[in-house]
Amino acid sequence: MEFFAISLLNGLSYGLLLFMLSSGLTLIFSMMGVLNFAHTSFYMLGAYFAYTISGVVGFWPALVISPLVVFVLGALFERYSLRRVHKFGHVPELLVTFGLSYLILELVQLVWGRATVPYGLPEQLQGPLFSLYGTQFPKSRSFIMLLALLMLLSVWLLLTRTRIGLVIQAALTHPETVEALGHNVPRVFMLVFGGGAALAALAGVIGGNTYVTEPAMAGAVGSIVFVVVVVGGMGSLAGAFLASLLIGVLQTFAVAIDQSLATGLQALGVTVTDQTFGHELLQLSVAQIAPILPYLLLVLILIFRPKGLLGKREG
Amino acid sequence: MSSPEYYRFKPWNIGRFVIWAGFALVLIVAPWLFRSSLALTMLSQMGYLIIICLSYNILLGQGGMLSFGHAVYTGLGAFVAVHAMNLAAAKGGVPIPLVLIPLVGGLAGLFFAILLGYVTTKKSGTTFAMITLGIGELVAAMSLMFPGFFGGEGGVTTNRTYGKLFDWTFGPQIQVYYLIAVYCFICTALMFAFTGTPLGRMLNAVRDNPERVEFIGYNTQRVRYLGFIIAGFFAGIGGSLAAINFEIVNASDSLSGVRSGGYLLFTFLGGATFFFGPMIGAVLLVLASVLLSELTKAWLLYLGLVFLFMVMYAPGGVASLIMMNLRVAKFGKFKRFWGLYGALIVTGAIVVLAAAALVEMVYHIQLNSALGSTLTFLGIELDTASATSWAGAAVVLVIGIALVEVVRRRFARVWGRAQEEIEAEVKRMETA
Q: Distance from B304 to chain A by nearest Cα, in Å?
């Protein structure tokens, strides 16, 4: 029970962090049809900027400033690079963000070095928030959960309850009509791209010090986030939410289970030795296959439900 | 995508014959022109990378499928090839001659493409790209779980000199080069022939207008699947040639997403819209990863920048730039560009050098600051501690950018006029 509760909480906090990342990606994708390959690079930039800024003015201002800086960078990239490529089609759009991810990685290594930077938690977030069955749950992870939920709420309110949100939604389906009504649709796209990047950066600010801030951090979550977006259904925010939680919980539980098919068979009275056929497969513990679980889920979803969990239509 | 124009001579297509004979000749004489052992290694790498990049272009250029997991098929082909070699070398093993090992690797690539391609090609476009990424990660992560087959961190080693073909032991690099060259020529010819087959044409149609293809009655998913399988076969051949060349395969390197990204990057840089584009890309890949990485620590930064600008300004890659200039030359309008190209190169070189000086200084601070603050850049002494070096490089950079802009505007004007004249001429020829 103790294992279950703590793993669930850890899984939920990791899943919510994934959601903070995938929500921006989904938002950009559903708006502009662009799969932003550099999305997790913005996540990394958010963490590194926060590290530098929090060294000057402290963590709490950095929580606001760092996403704002990344917002500006994202908007500039959209304005001067992505928009130019837009007329060539979707593949070049994807490629240009792919190139950007290379560039950001090199620049980060250039400015902050190749090793891990000591980006620590602020005092207010250190230590446990509460303890459950004797195991402590850290404040930082609770803060991630709180922030992710707040973000979900504010993005939802922004999209459905404000004027700009309605324009964004309308531009999604009827860009020409919206333009005819006098709204600057390219500027809306620019803001959306910057906004998506800022959401990723916000995840980076708290993900960077809860986990670790290093040049490999973008690649580490990069492919998982894409899995989340496909599993949830391309362009579906609710689907991304569901898939993030699912994958977060799944992975956290799997890492902690040291059972394999061999031990399962042992309970049934069959012993697996090194001579048994396929012993390498049978002796793999669940913890060992944890890293590939998201990808297995991806393959299964594609076979049995190609449009994703909450996807609307087949692409 | 512009339609290529062929010179056709009937009954013999002499132009094509000349080109292929020239290609074979280049493959044969190249090791005599570049004699050093480094050059020979690079030529061997170019040989199999040409196969790999061309096979990748079956996906990207011909099928419009942006794959982020091509290394899966080259890598798995390489692993199977290495195990086949070890099996053939073992006493009482299966006697497979070394010259057929690439075919074994190719069949392995084919097999895995059949297996994984079914899921991958269910979707097209952006979703396809993400699925290939996921499958790539899946295979890369799985390779670490089965150290028996993949050799864990250290990889699997082999020895290519287990058998003889006449006098050839394939020990010396030159013999391996010719093995690679023969495969390179045959595979290139086969892949070119593939572009003309009904399947190759359908693949283009599926890329350009899948809806319409479906209306005619084709199953777009099956066309993509078949194209994917063929690409997997050639990728496996390329991968196993790499394994023969290095005699070692390492999962964390040859199956990695970085490797797949490299194939994508250079196929695109070479030019995905022309058949020969990826061959240029393969040559560039070797030059960049061997020579450029020797020259500077910042080569990935330069590569990323070049790639970004290429996507933005010349999405057809190097090949399209060549073809555009050939078109201008064909209409006899190239004379006016000599001066402009000279000016572009000179001013561009100023910008590149100044920017490179700045980048190298930053890298020096980051990586070698323990060695002191001075570094030599192309024979010039730069001091990262003095403001003169920084300001000097910055001033040169700004002046260079201004000059490039002046030349670029003039170039764009002349280029536009030349294109207009060509268009007019084409129209006149059509009506005449």
A: 5
| B216–chain A Cβ distance below 8 A for any pair | no
Could you tell me which residues come within 8 angstroms of residue A253 by beta carbon, excluding any fewer than 6 positions away?
A7, A11
Number of domains in chain A: 1
CATH of the domain at A269: 1.10.3470
The helix (run of H) or strand (run of E) holding residue B175 is helix B173-196
User: What residue in A sits closest to B256 (Cα-Cα)?
Assistant: A219
Torsion angle defined by CA atoms of residues A248, A253, A256 and A258, in that order, rounded to the nearest 10 degrees: -130
- C-alpha–C-alpha distance, residues B285 and B213, integer Å: 35
More confident residue, A178 or B381: A178
- ipTM for the predicted complex comes to 0.80
- Please choose, from the candidates B110, B139, B116, the residue with its C-alpha nearest in 3D space to the C-alpha of residue B251: B139
Do the domain assignments include residue A309? Answer: no
User: Does some domain include residue A313?
Assistant: no
Note the pLDDT of residue A280: 65
* Candidate ranges A310-314, B360-364, B382-386, B399-403; pick with highest mean pLDDT: B399-403
Kindly indicate the confidence band of residue A315, based on its pLDDT and cuts at 50, 70 and 90: very low
Three-state DSSP class for A277? coil
CB–CB of A306 and B123 under 8 A? yes
The answer to whether B127 contacts A230, with C-beta atoms less than 8 Å apart, is yes
Cis preceding-peptide flag for B198 (omega within 30 of 0): no
- Closest CB to A106 among B142, B265, B301: B301
β-bridge partners, A128? A138
Confidence of residue B1 (pLDDT cuts 50, 70, 90): very low
pLDDT digits (tens, 9 = 90+) for B215-258: 999 999 999 999 999 999 999 999 999 998 888 888 888 888 88
In contact, A280 and B143? CB cutoff 8 Å: no
Q: Cβ–Cβ contacts within 10 Å for residue A130, how many?
A: 10
- B134–A295 C-beta distance less than 8 A: yes
Instruction: Let me know: does B63 contact B206? Beta carbons within 8 Å.
Output: yes
Q: Crossing angle, helix A293-304 and helix B101-120, to 10 degrees?
A: 60
Rounded to an integer, what is the distance from CA A190 to the centroid of its chain?
21
- For A:69-98, CB contacts with B below 8 A are 81, 84-85, 88, 90-92, 94-96, 98
Per-window interface: A 25-54 vs B, CB < 8 A: 29, 33, 35
Q: B261: closest CA among B60, B43, B44?
A: B60
Cβ of B135 within 8 Å of Cβ of A288? The answer is no
For residue A213, give both structure tokens: 């801030």
Beta carbons of B179 and B51 less than 8 angstroms apart = no
* Tokens at B198, concatenated: 């009904």
Q: Of B145, B257, B362, which has the smallest distance from its Cβ to A284's Cβ?
A: B145
Instruction: Report the alpha-carbon distance of residue A107 to residue A49 in Å, rounded.
Output: 13
Distance CA A152, CA A147 (A): 9
A185: part of which helix (H) or strand (E)?
Answer: helix A185-210
Round to whole Å and give the CA distance between B31 and B176: 12
- SS3 call for B342: helix
CA distance B177 to B47: 8
Among residues A253, A242, A194, A250, the alpha carbon closest in space to that of A45 is found at: A194
Task: Give the Cα separation of B49 and B24 in Å (integer).
Answer: 16
Phi-psi region of B155 (alpha: psi -120 to 50; beta: other; left: phi over 0): left
Q: Is A208 inside any structural domain?
A: yes
Asked if the structure places residue A132 within a domain, the reply is: no
CB count, 10 Å around CB of B302? 18
Residues spanned by the domain of A292: 2-127+137-304
- Summarize pLDDT for B32-52 with one digit per residue, the tens: 888 788 888 889 999 999 999
Q: How close does chain A come to B272, measured CA to CA in Å?
A: 11
